[in-house]
């Protein structure tokens, strides 16, 4: 049975690590840290790679979450891919540990007009 866990999160760190531009497309590497509050409670670190030019933007990232999900403590990894076709967040199979061992699913991130982020995890365990 698929469950839904909803949380808000704050960006604690957004640090560009490196940038390179050639042929009109810029590559960047960014280190990110987040704090989650709600049905997902804890923190995460993200390694992100971006590509940006005059007509398109995309990124790929891996996010390691050290959290409790509906009271179960552990870690897992989310794989991010985003571009003109949209955003995809998928739990990396086999990445769950502790009480989150065996976790699978997807996630979504939304941002309201005030800039507040909501994280929704659809998961099986």
TrEMBL record:
It comes from the Bacteria. Gene3D superfamilies: SO1590-like. InterPro entries: DUF3224 (IPR021607), SO1590-like_sf (IPR023159). Pfam families: DUF3224. This is DUF3224 domain-containing protein. It comes from Amycolatopsis saalfeldensis.
